[in-house]
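Notebook, student rotation project (T.W.).
Task set for the rotation: take a protein with a known small-molecule partner, predict the structure of the complex, and write up what can be learned from the model alone. Partner molecule chosen: fe (ii) ion. Sequence and SMILES entered below by T.W., checked by me.
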Amino acid sequence: MQSPSSQIAILGGIYSNYLALEAALYDIRDRGVDAIYCLGDLGAFGPFPDRVFPLLEAFEVKCIQGNYDHSVGYALDDCHCGYTDSRDNFFAQKSYDYTLANTADASRSFLRSLPAKRQLEIGCHRLLLCHGSPKRVNEFLWESTTTDHYLDVLLDGLDKIDCVFATHTGIKWKRDLARDKQFVNVGVLGRPENDGQTCVWYTLVTDGGTGPMGIEFIPVHYDHHRLATEMATERLPEEFQQTILTGWWTTCLESLPSKERKKGRF
Ligand SMILES: [Fe+2]
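Predicted structure of the complex:
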């Protein structure tokens, strides 16, 4: 358990997007927050996975282990993202094979060392940080398909936890629950949100005193043209580059519930 803070920043999956990570970290530092946390999936999708680690160290980002980190750390055969569609898995495998082949042994050792969850305090609030959900590292908790009842039961099963933070799906959302409890999916830093915008997002969490905590999603604008160019240089799929350049998902589409998919172009 960490000592109480008054404001923290939480990052979702970085997906090797070291340019967005760098932009986010400088923005966070300017705000003077007490600590920075990352909910895992440091590699995937983008180029040069090892460029993420020095930034995390320099800004003292406290990480947990996502499904990707576990797979890369232990050199498993695939990312265990939880996709069920063959096209989703085809592109996921291309991403995973590149990431594993380009992650140094020291970085993989770091990934293996990460905890699966963290607990911390913000004022009088007790937070649980996880990757997919408290129950499963690769559980997809989408806004349209996750009911209040499901979240109430989930939080009731956690000892003295007021708020759960997760990532893994790639699209941010938050929900206030009964008894001032909260659930937040912080989205990801690694790729845009399938809404035609090229920015990505992180989350600021502020002590709310005796009421709910303040949850603010902060946009991050970064040199996405450079990222797409580097993806091309590394011969990552053209489909990945298009997502970075347009803000529309071209892969991982079959995991989306119908409501979230209708918001996208494909
Ligand atoms: Fe994940």
